[in-house]
DNA sequence: AAACCGGGGAG
DNA sequence: CTCCCAGGTTT
């Protein structure tokens, strides 16, 4: 039986060999500016290259330097991030830009320990920036790395436990080519993303297959192993599209919940779907908010679904006309002319409503 | 340690 | 439909 060490060195050597001919050409490869490397890494967290690429270009153009990003209003940053998801990334990106601009004189930190202090930067992103921007010997561990290593070394320990994560991190670090950590990190991620795929990996044409434990044992399809299952809960959102004098009411989502700092409409959330206008009219919030306004329900959309990581949102949009504002409807609501709606960042399900104009399914 | 945080594409 | 993606923060 060959030693673990030989197996490790075979891995690194052949991975780099593969990378020479098969790496992915991406806009930020070879990028020297730490700011742009950081930006690309934040955008690509839990995000496929194809989805993140246009956002990277938008941000790069609008904010060429970290100080440009730092000086931007948060609503503007959120608007640019609109549709990409995981909006805490945008808030943290903005906060970190201010920190770098104000506390670090606009100079991007060049040590791992300092880089990982930035909001929104964890072990993966810190290693990526340290290796790509500064040539420092830190191995990245992302979804690709878990998959590639668990298969090649036949590791059946779950990747979503603390001890599992520590073991993979240690192995990844041991495999790192410390002479060219950036190239190595690119190589293993490219290999995972284009060759050692989650489903139907290209094992037939793989330099590593003869020493790949999972390939030899036919366990490719079960690796990597995750121990936990995600539980989803359902939420029913009834959005009130309240029209008055050619304006519509929106509000900012400031509460501790999904879509923080994005905008949406006055919302009545219920345990089950509200089916029909009498049920809506009986709702306590409907009565409270719209008392004395002469509100009339004009129509309702079909239920529209949006899946999040831990939740399924079922949204309906209720078209409502009022005769007089009868304020205070709610101090947090803002009346906005329809043509100005495009200036605010909305969650996907609302953007979908804007674009498809699915309303109304039923007219009342 | 467990829960939470989006959206899209592939199969 | 399920799975997973250049993960990180909060509790």
How many angstroms does the end-to-end distance come to?
77 Å
Number of β-strand runs: 9
What spatial form do the alpha-carbon principal axes imply? elongated
SS content category: alpha+beta
Our count of domains comes out at 2
Report the CATH C-level class of the largest domain.
Answer: Mainly Alpha
CATH architecture of the largest domain: Orthogonal Bundle
Mean pLDDT comes to: 94
Major beta-sheet overview? 9 strands, mixed
Q: What features would you highlight for this structure?
A:
elongated, 364 residues, single chain, Nucleoside Triphosphate Pyrophosphohydrolase, alpha+beta, Endonuclease III, domain 1, 14% strand, 42% helix, 15 helices, DNA-binding
Task: Note the topology.
Layout: H1 4-22, H2 34-43, H3 49-62, H4 66-70, H5 74-81, H6 88-103, H7 112-115, H8 123-134, H9 143-152, H10 162-175, H11 181-194, H12 213-217, E1 233-244, E2 247-252, E3 263-264, E4 267-270, H13 277-282, H14 284-290, E5 296-300, E6 304-307, E7 311-321, E8 334-337, H15 348-356, E9 362-363
Parallel strand pairs: 1-7
Antiparallel strand pairs: 1-2, 1-4, 2-3, 2-8, 5-7, 5-9, 6-7
The chain binds a DNA duplex (11 and 11 nucleotides) through residues 40-41, 43-52, 83-89, 92, 119-125, 128, 140, 142-145, 161-162, 185, 189, 192-193, 198-200, 228, 231, 258-260, 306-311, 347-348.
